[in-house]
Amino acid sequence: MSSPPVQVRFFGGLGEIGANMATIEVDGRILVLDTGLTFPDAEHHGIDVILPDWSALRERAGDIEAVVLTHGHEDHLGALPFFLRDFPDVPVYGTSLTNGLAESKLTEHSGVQGEFREVAAGERHQVGPFDLEFLRVTHSIPEGLATALHTPHGTVLHSGDFKLDQTPIDAHPTDLPHFAELGDDGIALLLADSTNADTPGHVPSERTVGKTLRQVFGDAEGRVVVTTFASHIHRVQQVVDAAVGAGRKVCFVGRSMLRIMPIARDLGVLDYDDEDVVQLHEVDRLPPQQVTLVCTGSQGEPFAALSLMAAGRHRQVTLDHGDTVVMASSVIPGNESAIYRTINGLTRRGARVVHTGSADVHVSGHAAADELAFFHNIVRAQAFVPVHGEYRHMVAHADIAADCGVPRDRIFVCENGDSVLLEDGDVRVGQSFDAGRVFVDGLGIGDVGDAVLRDRGAMSEEGVCVAVITVDAHARLVGTPQVVQQGVVSAERAEPLITKAAEELATALRGEEDRGSEPSLLRRQAVETLRRYWREQTGRRPVILPVIVDH
Amino acid sequence: MSSPPVQVRFFGGLGEIGANMATIEVDGRILVLDTGLTFPDAEHHGIDVILPDWSALRERAGDIEAVVLTHGHEDHLGALPFFLRDFPDVPVYGTSLTNGLAESKLTEHSGVQGEFREVAAGERHQVGPFDLEFLRVTHSIPEGLATALHTPHGTVLHSGDFKLDQTPIDAHPTDLPHFAELGDDGIALLLADSTNADTPGHVPSERTVGKTLRQVFGDAEGRVVVTTFASHIHRVQQVVDAAVGAGRKVCFVGRSMLRIMPIARDLGVLDYDDEDVVQLHEVDRLPPQQVTLVCTGSQGEPFAALSLMAAGRHRQVTLDHGDTVVMASSVIPGNESAIYRTINGLTRRGARVVHTGSADVHVSGHAAADELAFFHNIVRAQAFVPVHGEYRHMVAHADIAADCGVPRDRIFVCENGDSVLLEDGDVRVGQSFDAGRVFVDGLGIGDVGDAVLRDRGAMSEEGVCVAVITVDAHARLVGTPQVVQQGVVSAERAEPLITKAAEELATALRGEEDRGSEPSLLRRQAVETLRRYWREQTGRRPVILPVIVDH
To answer: Which residues pair with A411 in a beta bridge?
Structure first.
């Protein structure tokens, strides 16, 4: 076979950086699978979002054929506006809903435009040298796609995020017969979602949530407030159905609810009668037992609708005894404290709170371990790379694949920056490349790195102490240095500590003069003196910033 | 009845501050129930530990009769060294294990000593005017106590932390017959643990963990590393038993393991043969299948033994393929990211990791909702205050008590700073007082407050910008200001931004001179100019620190 090997490169989504992005190169052309972003952890001080580092693609800009978006979640399409800023001419393929959500993201980025091309599950498209087939998968957002890429070296199958709900709300389960057919023809390389690979068992059907919702609505006496992810449109559908079934009107509250619901309805993935939905200003005219609010804030985000209600600071909604709040959503790791703070706040207002810890009001969007075994036995891939998950998930998924018969030496647990090559039906590890993460902070993309985060972290723990040292032409101290602190001790206790710090610094710096000080030595001396001083006085290690002023 | 009402005051442990402490006042004398501390959340930048604010007790120092410690957990006794610093002459009552753990804490605080008096479950003691009876409860540490205080106004029962494991490891379940007897005589006021009140069902027995451990040890081929809380001595006992049963030696690793195990063994709550326990330096001589390490780090604490192993930085232990790690511990909210990072690191080293998400290797130490109903029906209290929990837990517990027949108007959901009065068998809400929290940071106790935390938080998100402005005797700018930044942008990109900032600042300050500037106006002008500058240039809002220097 004369064509070069097919190269799969992993830019994000493997390991700790949950911003999904991979590329597949065929005959010198590059297909991008997803352009996701991820959200900062506690150690990412001040960072807004985190992008995969695609700088390895810059010199290949002209070779990028297309972006395929597997579904509409932020960790799969959130980086698209930034990607299109760097590669403005690349067309984007996705379903109508995925494209609709992606386009609505672009409106937040002035000057960035995209050329969107619609595809659908069951279709096959030739995109440049890429022979692409899309398969329907269920997930926690409608219109998820798996992507099969037929190449001269064999077929690569990318699952996207998926689960195997056999009774989904829209009655369109993951298209296992189609997967089986592809398996019959032979899958040379499978890339599949690992998110729940270390969760034993099966994920219950989304319908089980509907049952719980109907019970909650049946029991509720006052208003019912439900929060979930706005993109979880089937969940919203179930809330609307339960509410309407209980004789209630529905009101959508919060920016992303108000942004996404019209798109979903226009595209036919969300269904309700106009008369069943009211605006927020109309809600107060209704008796509480006819009101359902569907709102943002499932993760305790500080300015989301539910968080404001919990804090008693929502301008239009004041919760009260008799109201019921349903948190029909997962607890994303890292958000626990914020979510529990929300629940405590809601409880304090008198609301009854139903959440995943107390009732079956959420199911995961990712297949669990036993379902993944089904999937592997249907696909029967010849080689496998677990994707979409932390390292522990990918290793667990590798074990499942091995249990299902994929040979161990054909299972590759990769990390971002790794690549695999497919040649003549054989898969091997390729060259690795510089992948990583790019921090977005305010207007800056990539101008904050680990050093800045370390500085921010140090100041966040211990505060900062500035010493302004005036010197004469011979670098001799003039007067007493000025010392200023922020975040070391409280303002009311700072005065004597600051005065003493300045005196000790002056003494130390005068002691240095005989040795013919120059500014850099002065600076070092100031840092050492003040470090010692604060440690002795407070046990703290503020960041010391000396500034030398010429008299 | 002539004696004044019994007053119960809540200093901590109710709501968000999990540092348990309450007082009961009888005839002008004060009994302190627990002196716990709590650990900082992400927003408590740089804080080491958080104490309840007991300043309301300061003017009553001479009236404090005793401290009773219900059990040996940090959130019940961790503040004792700080408490004894303020109230050095107060005797401390607890079981032998609780006192042993408390005394070993005191050794970390030089100059603080305590007078410990031993009590045991089943005993009755007259302590000043306090007629105290102690009852055995099971919990995730041995020797938990409930405390019944018999007063002329009725009996107050405080559950301590408890669960109702009917088959505990030491075969000593919570003493329900004794609780029933007290109930027969009448409980005027019950204070009971609410931690799991919104968790449906029952907590499985600690023995179920032993079963899983034996399976894991049976399957393991290489070394087995188990982490749990060092204070969870029954859990450690089960690990030791499973290890020895599988023909392995046990080695304790990590500071708190090495501190607590000898105390526990001396006091007879932990049992093992000398020949079954080895030191870390002896481990390498043993084949892997004969090794069990019991170590600290269950919460992903950065410098704990398991965390170092996960990062490949433990000096004596290098994990490898074939090793098994068991995380036989809960995931404390807020620690998820650190714990998952540990699991990912362990997996990367090749270890198989068994944790609560994948196997039954942990059970809670607190009774769940259905068990609390048992408890209320046995105690039959006339009035009830839920304690030990966040607001949502206390409200859930109030509902359970009401379902079990405690009249709604005799259930009081309190917060820290509230008090209740018991008079003649009747309970009512008393005066509230200033409770709160005291931050310990380095050597300082209480010198860091919310304002300092806000400053630290601001710097952690956006960095800091210092402007040194030299002025003449007329407050006119001399030369160009010096601008220094830390944590706003990376050092390599800072130079041109800083230079331009200084120029813009100079222009702005010169423009002010005509208006007869004085230092405070100059300062304000500098802050405004630099705020605008950084926002326009970077979209960030660093903390601006202007320093005026006289020429």
So the answer is: A384
The per-residue pLDDT for range A330-387, each reduced to its tens digit, is 998 889 889 999 999 999 999 999 999 889 999 999 999 999 999 999 999 999 999 9
Query: What distances in angstroms separate CA B67 from CA A180, B135, B208, one per listed residue?
Result: 69, 17, 35
- B13 & B127 share domain: yes
ipTM, 2 dp:
0.89
What strands lie across the sheet with B437-441, from one edge to the other? B49-52, B437-441, B444-445
The confidence score (pLDDT) of residue A472 equals: 86
Interface contact flag, B539 A200, Cβ < 8 Å: no
Same domain, A54 and A121: yes
- DSSP-derived secondary structure for A473-499: TTS-B-S--EEEEESSS-HHHHHHHHH
Q: A130 forms bridges with which residues in the sheet? A: A127
Domain count, chain A: 3
Closest chain B residue to A42 measured between Cα atoms? B42
| Tens-digit pLDDT profile for residues B183-219 | 999 999 999 999 999 999 999 999 999 999 999 999 9
Q: What is the per-residue pLDDT for B358?
A: 87
State the average pLDDT for chain B: 95
Residue B482 touches partner A, C-beta closer than 8 Å: yes
Q: Does B199 touch chain A (CB under 8 A)?
A: yes
Residue B163: what pLDDT?
A: 97
Q: Mean pLDDT for chain A?
A: 95
For A543, the domain range is: 450-550
Residue ranges of A 341-370 with Cβ closer than 8 A to chain B:
341, 343-344, 347-348, 353, 357-358
Same domain, B126 and B59: yes
Of B392, B460, B461, nearest to A347 by CB-CB distance is: B392
CA B302 to chain centre: 17
Q: Do A336 and B333 touch (CB under 8 A)?
A: yes
Q: Computed from CA positions of residues B112, B117, B119, B123, in that sequence, does the dihedral angle turn out positive or negative?
A: negative
B256: in domain: yes
A321, A355, A389: which is the final residue of a domain? A355
Nearest residue in A to B197, CA atom: A358
The pLDDT score that the predictor gives to residue A377 is 98
* B-chain residues near A337 (CB < 8 A): 41-42, 333-334
